[in-house]
Amino acid sequence: MKNIKLIIAALLICVASFGQQLKVNKEVLGNYKDKEVILYTLTNKAGNVLKVTNYGAKIVQINVPDKNGNIDNVTIGSDKFDGIVKGDPFGGATIGRFANRIANGKFTLDGVEYNLPINNRPNTLHGGPNGWYTKVWNTETVKSKSPAVKFSYTSPDMEEGFPGTVQVSVTYTWTDKNEIIIDYAATTDKKTVINLTNHAYFNLHGAGKGYIFDHILTLKSSAYTPLNSTKIPTGEIKQVKGTPYDFTTPHTIGYKIGETYESSTFQGYDDNYVLDNKEKVDATVYDPESGRVMEVITDEPGLQFYSGNSMQWKRAIENGTKGVNTRSGFALETQHFPDSPNQSTFPTTVLNPGVKMKSRTIYKFSIRKE
Q1: N or C end of the chain, less CB within 10 A?
Q2: Predicted TM-score (pTM) of this structure
Q3: Among all residues, which ones are annotated catalytic?
């Protein structure tokens, strides 16, 4: 009898261990520039799935239920090799060394002018044409109560024109509450600038299931940073009240798009919001059709709201098979402000040696049955 109990106990331990291993599944998809591109599937206790890859340290799939229990992927991306390396370069990726735009590809630090490659004329966008979204990151699974994966990368001094060798990591944790917790960390050996974000596109109907204008957005932001003609902040912090940028009370994403504003047709959003940072949740998106809710929680001072104005990319691949239609996804990118190295009144993006930059953003998915 004692031997039977021991055998049963051993089997239970093996089953428990096997279940724990299934929380993070690793699959090698192929090789890119002699490095393995790996897909990680993170499964929580409810059976909901987050898929991430070390190419660009990006999110490629988020599978969560609607109010009727139907599971859909709510982010635009691909879990196939070709879709990951040949699809939209920004979608779902970790953006660095500097997210958003730097005016004319130049900034000055301690009297030294640094020149960056221009990839969004006349500016540098998202760290340049060979930013961190193009890199195959190192990987490791993380011991945690929830399934988690850590990606790390060493950015050499003067990569894409930025000073300092930077050690950066991003950790994705997928909780039983359907939260994607994104933890960023970075250090440098030389004074530099850094601004990190995740560039996921969302559609709470489900990826490929129609437009996002009917999604209801609430932004805890009473101000935004107006842009010039090349999408660089003018330096002004402007109140949203009385403008199409006001989401302090809930509105559909498309509520002002197509209307006349400042003598022209308002085309949509690709703008940095100054977060009030007074409440736990900084932004909420609700889809009445599916009942899905997405909350954004961050310690960053800003958030870029993009309403999918021009998502018809030649290389865009949705779920590995078909192109992405314009207005079929939105982005809420937590960040420091665009062009901060050239804007002395904005929160600083300078990182000094001996200092560890840390930042956390959470995307939480739930259901509202109204």
Answers
A1: N
A2: 0.91
A3: 199, 333
